[in-house]
Amino acid sequence: MISTSIRRQFRSIVGEDWFLETPEDLATYSYDAFLQEFKPDGVMVPGNIDQISKIMDIASKEKINIIPRGAGTNICGSSVARKGGMMMAFHRLNRILEIDHESMCAVVQPGVVNADLQKEVEKQGLMYPPDPASLFVSTIGGNVALNAGGPRGVKYGVTRDYLLGLEVVLPSGEVVRTGGKALKSVSGYDLTRLMCGSEGTLGIFTEIILRLVPLPPAKATLQAIFSDLDDAATTVSAIIGSGIVPTTLELIDRVVLEVIRDYGGAQFPEGAEALLLIEVDGEKEVVEGQGERIEQFCRKRGAVSVERASSPEKAEKLWQARRSAFGAVAGLRPNCIVEDATVPVKRLPGMIRKIVEISEKYTLKIGVLAHAGDGNLHPLIMTDLRDKEEMARIDKAVEELFEAAISMGGTLSGEHGIGIAKDRFMSMEFSERAIELMRGIKRVFDPNNILNPGSFL
Amino acid sequence: MAVNNHERSQMIWESFADEFDQCIKCGLCQATCPVCKELLLEKYTPRGKIQLTRYYCRGDLELSEHFRDIFAKCLLCGVCSVTCPSGVDLRSVFTGMREELTKKQGVHPKARPAVTSLMEHHNLSGEDNEERGDWRDDIKDTPGHRYEWEKARVVYFVGCVASFFPMVQEIPRKLVQILDSAGVDFTILAGEEWCCGFPLIGAGSPQQMVEAMKHNLEKVRAAGARRIVFSCPSCLKTWKEHYETDLELFHSSEFIRELIAGGDISLGPLDTRVTYHDPCDLGRNGGIYDAPRQILEAIPGVTLVELEKNRAQSVCCGGGGNLEMVAPELSIRIAGKKMEEIQRTGADTVVTSCQQCVRTIKGMVRREKAKFEVTDITGLVFRSMSLARTDDRPGRDHQTYESM
After folding, report:
1. Do residues A324 and A346 both lie within one domain?
2. Is the CB of B70 less than 8 angstroms away from the CB of A24?
3. Using a CB-CB distance cutoff of 8 angstroms, which residues of chain A are in contact with residue B62?
4. Which helix (H) or strand (E) covers residue A194, if one does?
5. What is the helix, strand, coil percentage profile of chain A, to 5?
6. Domain residue limits, chain B
7. At how many degrees (to 10) do helices B46-58 and B10-22 cross?
8. Residue of B nearest to A18 (CA)
9. Fewer CB within 10 Å of terminal CB in chain A, N or C?
């Protein structure tokens, strides 16, 4: 419980309108996009760094848990008050402070929405590459905390690859700056990148410096359909091995294709086992040549149909199947659990076969969407949370799935994070010593364990 | 079960459970909701409101004044429903929750005057319903019949806002002249037209509509009409969804499109660049996107520049969901964003097909002294007709337009 006097102090720091404790507020800050919910003791929406610093000063002295939250779109439960405490939301810190064209970087506040930043930098012929599916809603602060990826990751990597510097309020209330606008820096430990993916456990970002790249002038978009999953998988390897680095290389398996078809999303040839959506970007002439070569790769490896978009509208049409996939699958049963196991690219077909095997073993309906170009799989488990018996089977299936991914040299999470969703599996991927190192880092930053406690550590 | 303990209606639970069970809490609805973009806090997001409904139905939350206020801060524009990847019908949950709130707490205090006026005077404005047809007084050379006939094939259902609010009375004034000059056998119901009941749905009190529905249907039947034309998309939608009738119901844009196609209207050139705002209840919630665009295409010299968000993605003008009554400041902020979106197209004129959108956007243009014109599609058609070559023109004298 947080005393009335402390509440009064918090309220006076953020102001009456931004200290929330009605039942309606507690209910609506009890969740993110993961399943489990925990009601916080209150919600604060600070308007500047000084307020955050003052709040943390009190919180560390009084040992009050603080849980930072962006738009609450993460699907690993990394922004819920698992151990109680105050939510800290960044709705008000939503300004793009600077777009520095000469230094190719942007300085933003944590509450800026990813798509809003993209739109602004595109006006100047620049691009901010990380494009998580939640980009129209999720914030840069949240993206940094979760090290968000996206379909463009094959070529462009993830949030960490674009993070240059941070202003951070530590759990004690002290403020530190890490990194800066310099594109290269090897001074000391890389605190900036340590913060990235820390899921709100080390510090609160108040200013974020991001690297930008030139907006590529042209794109080529292709869709290839295969009647054999292995043909699709070898095509993926062939493309990656040819020296072409696609922006996007997405795979949709038979189960998901069938759901999309029944949903009315698109039509596919009979016997379609896998669909590849491939996009390359760059200079017009280069992209056209690459598009042709990819088309040949696909045909040579047995694609039953290949379509290359001749206009942006046609490209958008090819994207439709991929974009409608999640909605179609989510609509089929009351709930849909999205997993995130990731393996080295060449192990992708093996991993997909393993998923099929697991779904048969536990009689579950699991479809696969994959960012195939970087080995990042999204098995979609269609279920009904109220079905306790099925949920028990899912628990076992998921465990087996992670074991398989790890045994192939993969990881628990490619881009969604650990949070409270997968903390129990951490020991599969890390030794006790490695986890102890992480705990040690946490103690250095947050000796009182007040920042998002109960998350993955 | 908690639901029974709290005497919550099992019906509410059952009708909503499918919807909130379908919500995966992804939060993508925040991307398009005009209200939560202004108010920021999670409780004002569509996801937040769905979760509040779930908490309430489960017996974990009481209905408070604050709870009601949250649900009142919604335009019922339905853009969340088309954004949701899981296909949750958020709009009907929000309408249903308003109904539940009204049942438990009575009508929202700020919506009470409108509801009272509706029950007492059969219109939104609080005026005597006999004045419903007074807009005709400003038509120069109004024919003796004043567009009122005992029998007619078509009834033009004018709607409260266009009947009583001077800022948009030009819509019926022009539509009756368009219909007249096209030789349509139509009548208005004047003082015998009652509010369709739409504001009662927004106020969570749809059961109070019954009398009005009966009355309106009877009057149309008495006129012997088989077809009704509406210039108000919300009246049209209310009739389609709540009036059980086999009468043919048209929006004015559909009706005018047919008149153009049939050669009953001649259009003259207008040298103008326009953008088109899809009203929520006509477009996204009514499925009518093409008729107004086909009219624009038929008018010589009109260039259409689409808004960034159009058709199903159209952003509400701020005038929906009774928001203007309960939170006028918020409604104005949203209208301000609409105005900016319109300005970015560089169009001289924004055309829409709804008197409420015209009112809201025009109000904003006046407040901000913006430099574009706002008109209902009937206004544009009327102007174009008045510029048609005289020998082509079946209708009345050019002077009529000039003098208006």
Report:
1. no
2. yes
3. 23
4. helix A191-195
5. 40, 20, 35
6. 2-106, 111-260
7. 140
8. B41
9. N
Q: In chain A, which residue's Cα lies nearest the Cα of B83?
A: A327
**Which of residues 135 through 154 in chain A touch B, CB cutoff 8 A?**
136-137
Q: Are residues A206 and A285 in the same domain?
A: no
Give residue-wise pLDDT tens across range B209-261.
999 999 999 999 999 999 999 999 999 999 999 999 999 999 999 999 999 99
- Partners of residue A23 in chain B, C-beta under 8 Å: 61-62, 64
Per cent of chain B over pLDDT 70 is: 94
Residue A174 lies in a domain: yes
Interface test with A, best of B74, B86, B308, B315 (most A CBs within 10 A): B86
Residues A223 and A122 in one domain: no
Nearest-CA residue of chain A relative to B46? A28
* Residue A368: CA count within 13 A, CB half-sphere: 30
Quick check: B389 pLDDT over 90? no
Domain extent, residue A225, equals 217-328
Which residues from A are below 8 Å from B67, CB to CB? Answer: 24
A325 pLDDT more than 90: no
**CA B178, B184, B187, B188 torsion-angle sign:** negative
Please identify, in words, the CATH class of the domain defined by B111-260: alpha beta
Contacts of A39 in chain B (CB under 8 A): none
At B397, the pLDDT band (50, 70, 90 cuts) reads very low
Q: Residue B189: what pLDDT?
A: 98
B128 vs B138, B193, B237, CA distance in Å?
Answer: 19, 12, 25
The fold of B2-106 is Fumarate Reductase Iron-sulfur Protein; Chain B, domain 2 (1.10.1060)
Residues forming beta bridges with residue A225, ordered by sequence position: A275, A305
Q: List chain B residues with CB under 8 Å of A336.
A: 24
Residue A127, domain member (yes or no): yes
Residue B195 has, within 13 A of its CA and on its CB side, a CA count of: 27
Report the SS3 class of residue A109: coil
Nearest residue of B to residue A43 by CA position? Answer: B41
Q: In CATH, what number is assigned to the domain containing residue A383?
A: 3.30.70.2740
pLDDT score recorded for residue A6: 98
Q: How far is A15 from chain B (nearest CA, A)?
A: 15
In a domain, A433, yes or no: no
Model confidence pLDDT, tens digit, residues A62-104: 999 999 999 999 999 999 999 999 999 999 999 999 999 999 9
